[in-house]
Amino acid sequence: MNGQNAADNGAGAVTLTQKKTVKLAKMAMLVAISLLLVNIHFPIFPPIAFMEYDPADIPILIGTFAFGPAAGILITVVTALLQGFTVSAASGLYGILMHIIATGTYVLVAGFIYKFHKGKKSAVIALIAGTLAMTAIMVPANLTITPYFMGVPVDAVTALLPFIIAFNLIKAGVNGLITFLVYKRVSKFLHR
Length: 192
Prior knowledge:
RibU; Arp2/3 complex 21 kDa subunit ARPC3; 7 helices; transmembrane helix; cell membrane; single chain; transmembrane; mainly alpha
């Protein structure tokens, strides 16, 4: 290998490193936006005030569509941990775990569908499938995890299942709709 080839290879390695650094910086920015958005919250069903809507999953879904499901999981875990130790500290480990399960399921399902079939129709299918998957996984998650962490009987959680299902459908559906509406505009910046 001559000196010119070595210099070209070195320049290529720097470019790859720079690309990875820029991608990580953009992912970190999405985490920061999610942390800000979690402060916008309100109950969907006023009698059950702890079931609050927040738009914090929108940047995570945008990151998933832009960078793939593995990046989406990484953004989800980092966001859940940071939220769990800062703005949502009252929910503690329970909140972190439930956030990772709910959003992680959404991200995996929607992310894999969109990764292999990009386009508007596929985005709609991915977001609907992600919404349904998140709603489905939160039924057993609430039945098994909530009684343990909250010290309530399983029957109390079972009585809330219609609200748990409706809450997850509404929250994930609204976040999916907003993601669909803004993704193409935001993706131009993320793919620069």
